[in-house]
Amino acid sequence: MEQVTVVTGGSRGIGAAVALRLASAGHQVAIGYERAQEAAEEVARQIRDGGGTCMVHQVDTSDEQQVDAFFGAVRETLGPATGLVNNAGITGPLGRFAETPVEVMRRVVDVNVMGALICARRAVLDMSTRYGGAGGAIVNISSGGATLGSPGEYVHYAASKAAVDAMSLGLSKELAEEGVRVNSVQPGMIVTDIHAAMGDAQRPWRKSDRIPMRRPGQPEEVAGAVVWLLSPDASYTTGATLRVTGGL
Ligand code: NDP
Predict the structure, then answer these.
(1) Which of 95, 96, 159, 160 is the most buried (most CB within 10 A)?
(2) What are the BP-aspect GO terms (predicted)?
C-alpha cells in the first residue's frame, strides 16, 4: 500500500527530520508549515533530490478550515492520508506559572491540543475503515514534560502535552478495530528552535547534568522512533507512549 503521511510542523526541527526520514523509508510526505515557507521548501527540495515524493502546504493546525483544506490538497495531490504525525507545537514565552499571561496559555492549548485533535479528527476520516479508508497510523508528538512535569518553566505546556497523551490513548482504543493505530512519542530535550524563546540558562544543552545520558538529543534521534511507529514493524503497537529522552 502507498503510504501518504502528513507531517504538521514539517518545516523545522523534529518535524523536518521526521519528514526526511519518512521519505527515505518510501513514504510520500505532505509537509505542513505555518510561517516558515522557505524552510519547508528546503525540506521538500532535499526529499525530491533524494528521489522522494512530497508536497508542501501552509496550515495553522488550530484552524479547522485550514486543516480541511490541507487534507483536501493532500488527497488531490498524493491520495488519502494513511499516516499523520501530529508534530506542530509551541511553548510560548516561558516563565513562572502565575506570571504567564492567560492568553499565552490559551494559545499553547489551542495549538498543541486543539491542533492535534483537529488534525487527528480529519485524518481519521481518511484512514478509518468505518469511513471507507484503508487503515493507517497516527503518531502524536507529546513531551517528556507531560509525565515528568516541568515546574517553574512551562506548566501550561506540560499540561497541554498530557492532554495529547490522553487523546492518543483514547483514540487508540476507539480506532483499534478500524485499522488505525495511534501512539505517542515523548521527546526529551531536543536541540531545535523551540528553545529560542528560553533564556540561555534554560536551554537543553545547559541542562545536560539532569539527563542520564548527559546530552540533549538531536531531531533525527526522535525521527527514528516516529518512523518505526508508522512502519509495518509496529503493526501490533497501539496506545503506546514511547519516551525518547536520553533516560530522563
Ligand atoms: P520547532 O519550534 O523547531 O518547530 C515547530 C514546528 O511547528 C514548526 O514547523 C512550526 O511551523 C510548526 N508550528 C507551530 N505552530 C503551528 C501552527 N499553529 N500550525 C502549524 N504549524 C505550527 O519545534 P520542535 O521541532 O522542537 O518541536 C516539534 C514538536 O516536538 C512540538 O510539538 C514540541 O512541543 C515537541 N517537543 C519538542 C521538544 C524539544 O526539546 N525540542 C521536547 C518535547 C516535545 P513554522 O516553521 O512554519 O513556524
Answers:
(1) 160
(2) fatty acid elongation
More confident: 239 or 197:
239
- pLDDT category at 204 given cuts 50, 70, 90 is low
- Note the ipTM here: 0.99
Q: DSSP strand E in 21-175: where?
A: 28-33, 54-58, 83-86, 136-141
Domain boundaries 4-244, corresponding CATH code: 3.40.50.720
Amino acid 49 reads D
Cα of 33 vs its chain's centroid, Å: 12
**Residue 62, ligand 1, Cβ within 6 A:** yes
Residue type at 24 in one-letter notation: S
Copy the grid coordinates of residue 193: 528552535
- Residue 163: name the closest of 245, 89, 220 by CA: 89
- Name the residue with the closest Cα to ligand 1, atom 39: 190
Cell of 235: 503493526
Q: How many angstroms separate the alpha carbon of residue 34 from the centre of ligand 1?
A: 10
